[in-house]
## 1
Amino acid sequence: MKKPILIFYLLTLIGLSFPTSMGAQTPTTDNIVLSDLAWDNDLEFYFFDVSLEGSRIYTAYNMDIFLPDGISTDKDYVLMTEEGSEGIYPCTYNKIKKEYTYTHGVSASMPSTNQLRIACTSDINEEFTKTSGTLFRVYVELDASKFTFSPKPIVTVSGIGLVVKEGAQKYVPADFSCRPFSTGIPAERTLPLNISATNKIGTLILPFDATLPTGVKAYQCMSVDAEAQSLNLTAASSFEACKPYIVYAENGYSGNISGTVDLSATYPDEDIYAEGYLTGVLSPTVVNTGYIMQNQGDGPMFYDADGSNFSLPAGRCYLTPPTALLSKAFGFSFEEVNAINAVIGKSPISSELHDLSGRRVTQPTKGIYLQDGKKVFIK
């Protein structure tokens, strides 16, 4: 891939600072807008544009842009959008050299990884020609393997300042976080699915539609039987995007599931998706409510989180039954051949003890043990 050769005007005398006579900062509803990613065929780089949607004429601006993991850039990858006489910056045209000379320059620095600090000023304090327009372009490189399962990475813009000429008044738009990249990001995703032959059970949520791998069955939990204190499972014929499932493989399964993310869909900022009584996460998430699937020595079961923090990897699910079901754990029945029973029954409360690694202990000594999914201390 070619490295883009980008030329922008460095204001060596002013740097990233603004006039010391700047007055009070005034909140404004004027906006900074980030475009979707696009591909530059000539430079062979992705880029996005940063624009102003304003109501007054400004002379300068500054801001910080924080890019998520998987999207990297460099201070030399920032290009002031010129656009000749149609741009937002005043300019003069040299007929002999056939080029424009601009009154403003854009400077960029990187205070930390994936943080761009941008400033635009004019050494003669010239005003822009428009209230709205494209301010600059940022070229980036993508590493889709670092996007986890969020098809629209979050970009944060803060420290925004818009300056008008008269009295060097500074207007401050609200800081914001957004998901501007609804198109352009590589939409192909691959998720490893591993179900041990011992456990046979797991959970899964995908950001794309996919067929069931050979030997794998999938179930949704859409209803409850309050009288029997049980949760009913419904078999699924395939995986649907952003829906949580319990998965079962009689002989275990290890492989990859690939698919295409629908970037036109609307995704919640938290990447958390609930349907029925299962909740799935598409980004690594800390969970301290609901029931977490574990194997504490009696096979895989959903245990009450009971306020403890559990780190769920992207693509996993937890159980969120109604409060009417008061079981401390929900287990699985394997009465049918090569299939999971249609009902997850309430696991009986047991007095058995396990060590913190999940191994059953018949003759406990002084220490901390697990009993019915809770920690107990034996004196």
## 2
Amino acid sequence: MQRILFLTGRLAEPALRATLERLAPGRFGWEVRQPGVQVAALMTADLIRRRLASPQGFDWVMVPGRCRGDLDALSADLGLPVRRGPEELADLPEYFGDKTHGTRSRDLSRYSVKIFAEIVDAPRLGMAAIVRRARALAADGADVIDLGCLPETPFPHLEEAVAELKRLGHAVSVDSHDEAELKRATRCGADYLLSLTEHTLDIADEGAAVPVLIPARRGSYASLARAVRAMQRRGRPFLADPILEPIHFGLADSLYRYRRLRRQFPDVAILMGVGNVTELTDADTSGINALLFGLASELGIDAVLATSVSGHACAAVREADLARRLMHAAREAGALPRGFGGGLMTVHDKRPWPQTLEEIRAVAARVRDPSFRIQTSAEGVHVFNRDGFWSAADPYQVFPHLGLAHDGAHAFYMGVEMARAEIAWRLGKRYVQDAPLEWRVADLRCRAGKEETCR
């Protein structure tokens, strides 16, 4: 068994020891040391280097998750690996693969679903606006930029838009019900056409664009199947889309058509447009995308068309990017989509309160300085220092007891932190003093590839 040295602060030491006594037997040997700091989060690599003699008899050292500094350099100085643990002690069992928490590999670098992201009003936008939208969608994870055409709305700069987006390195699709626009699109070099029916397949012969096939009559599986067979006879690549319908307007039947298509044509590439559900349902899109991409994973869907038109769907494309990665990882592991990172849980956390009220009171009893600590439990928001312990669901009930009426800077700080704590408590989110609340993929700063923000 490995032997691990755990470093922590004075206040967290009793709780850490209690956790290790439950967790470690049969897994690893351990020892706890605290290098003279009261709060574990204040530990730095330089402080450890100064205060910790070269440890003997250990395989590696674990430092608190918020420990700052260069751990590679510290590892070299100490002569054994130094690793950051989780930010919260309550997450330590999960870190060590406690089966009760279902920890899995969190490699989200791979995916199997391509994302088409639509600029829904492209004819009304100038070239600069189209390019800006395309760059933002690509940053959110889109693989293909879809230029959405509008009924009875001229698109004189269609060719220019396709050429410019391709010059910038984007794959481009054009989405139109107008046969003339689709012909223009494939002739000018678009990569995909959305959409052709069994009656308009000849448009595919106008250029090299890959067509997406849809039923000639909405809901007609037979029409789509005929179009699929016709394209198979031509020997040309294509995608097929039975059309996902909105809730109460045929959603269940449309899901059956996707299942039927996959069973009848196991090798055909399938596209699913998810906007009819994400855009037309008043619910947070992160959860909807999780479910839809779970279905896509089971059905072997090859591509998804996503939109972000409604204000509540503004993060739909980056949610789609994360959802496809999460579902791919879970499928490859033969596992439920749990424990692969909580990036799609934007409102609630699985374990919002890492400590009970009794545990928080026990920590508060050991505090001997005037600095205020703020923590949350299922019972509410708790503020404490050496002079007292105050609890409330509303920060206004606590503030008069803090004696900050004449200290504007400190009052501002405590107001911000208590507001964050209240928001977290009411939503069931994890609160950490001096850290922003984690909104994960819903955070407007989140972009594809920035795992620390999104996932």
## 3
Amino acid sequence: MSSPSAARPPRVALIGVTGYAGVYLGMLRPFRARRELELAAVVIINPGDPEAAAAAVELTAWGANLYDSTAALFAAEAGRIDLCLIPTGIAWHARLTVAALRAGMHVLVEKPLAGSVADTALIRAAERETGRWVAVGFQDIYSREARDLRAGLLAGLIGPLRSVSVLGLWPRPVTYYTRNHWAGRLRSDQADVYDSPLNNAFAHFVNLALYFAAPATEPGAAPVCEDVELFRVNAIESFDTAVVRARSAGGVDFWFGFSHSTQEFHQPEILITGARGRAHWVHEKHLVIKSDDGGGSVMPLPDAFTFRHRMLMSVLARLREPGTWICDTAVAARHTAFIRSVHDRAPVRDFPAAWVKRGRDPETGADLLTVTGLGAALREAFQDGGTLAARGFGPAREYPVPPPAASANLSSWAAAAANPAI
């Protein structure tokens, strides 16, 4: 397919219209209204859903071709689509991305890139094979603020980096883990998922931390886990609370602390400490730079809607200008490798039942399981780089680390392709 031009807006395909795909559809509307893209093809696997039915009416009025499966879309639209958007479950990221690339489409796939290192390798091989590229939906990293901060850090803005610490507390009700069939799972639909706070809700901030701390010659840092604590209070395979301490080959210390099981809500923040100052990134609030000599700056950060808007702007620009920066597979693969190393380093443990408090989510009224004192302990550990164990949080039971999954392959994916549960 020839590149889009000023006379022809890019033809875009969207996989799904409900769940997070509904967010993508909303993101596309203003771009379509400005004739910056044509939403040419859409997959709707659940036409009986009221939200999907309403979207189908809207999309039909736009002239979009509607398909009941991804296989049908790729067969009918091969060579006719510039960009395919894949905001599906993690288990489907790799197989759908590879299929889209082989159908001649560039891809924007939602984060994470894939659930396993083997799957990221398959995607990158398909890029080389087809000459197409993949952008990954780590939306915050597309912002000018993120790019400028990395450039400043590389230029010695706060001196050689010493540590990067990331904290985030977003309570999630029990229904968060029943909203689909892969939430909280390690594997689903014949693919690795490793759903967790680090690989889903807070994945943006893990990825940013690795990006900010990377040497100039690397797409992202590759820290080695030294101490990992994985806990859960919900009835899931994976974890809903984690503290991870790691160290890069360049001597940068990393600390990650995230939970969906606290009573407190705490917006994600990234604290980067250098030999001559600090950079403090607070989600949807501000970026503060302070140097030891008294200098500094404060820069407001946009909200999530603006981050997503900028992401799509960058990806569309890449179609016409190959030099436009995107979060590519080289960057995103570092995040996937780090997630796998976290799971390999420690078992998932249950919090003792006596510490668990059952309440109600203030927004939905659904059951909410929290751990008494956990939020305060995580905030303290964020300040000193410590562990939960040092603050008296221990396990009730532990489960063995799951064995490495066999490398994914397209033939095993094909056996599940008829399953529309994407």
